[in-house]
Amino acid sequence: MLRYAWELMSVFLASLTPAVEVRGSIPLTYYFFSEEPSMKVIGVAVAVTANLLIAPVVLSFLDRLNDFLTGLGGRFLFIRNAYVKVVGSARAKGRKYVGRWGYVGLALFVAVPLPGSGAWTGSLIAYLFGLKYRASVLSIEVGVLAASAIITFALEAGLHFLGFPR
């Protein structure tokens, strides 16, 4: 397994990256370990585990980060403006799901394997809507697990349909 340390670290870091998360790290796992079925399972586990770490960590410090980013000015005004734009987008997306279905909507939002949905945005939405920490983490984790299952199933079905070895 040490032989695959670089690949597993790449999968881990990709899964922690906003906009990539499991949507990109599970396909990356399939790319790295196409010839090694046992390593593919380990790689998927690494991707999912890394993505599960996002919500508890991000929700723990989002209050301080929000205060810091909204307080930026001067040469760093562009960072504050970019953050405000991301917050506005997350609020609009969250209103469709969380505003209607609460914590179930949050889980559904995170589970949809599309760009702009995932643990990072789900955490921001939970913060913006003032949702409780534990229930938010649970909802986001359920969403991450569902997204991981959807992506893995889609990859397996696609590879089978195209006749590639799995």
Descriptive notes:
By secondary structure, this protein is an all-alpha fold. It has one domain (2-162). It is 80% helix and 0% strand. It contains seven helices and no strands. It has helices at 5-16, 21-32, 37-52, 54-70, 77-111, 119-128, 133-162. Helix 3 runs antiparallel to helix 7 (133-162). The longest helix is centred in the middle third of the chain and has 35 residues, at 77-111. It is globular. The two termini are 20 Å apart. The model has no long low-confidence stretch (mean pLDDT 93).
Short recap of the structure:
The chain has helices at about 5-15, 20-30, 35-50, 55-70, 75-110, 120-130, 135-160. The protein is mostly helical and about 170 residues long. Helix 3 runs antiparallel to helix 7 (about 135-160) and helix 4 (about 55-70) crosses helix 6.
The largest β sheet comes out as: none
| Cα radius of gyration in angstroms | 17 Å
Number of strands: 0
Globally, the shape reads globular
Mean pLDDT: 93
Taken in chain order, the helices and strands follow as HHHHHHH
Instruction: Tell me the span between the first and last alpha carbons.
Output: 20 Å
Query: Strand share of the residues?
Result: under 5%
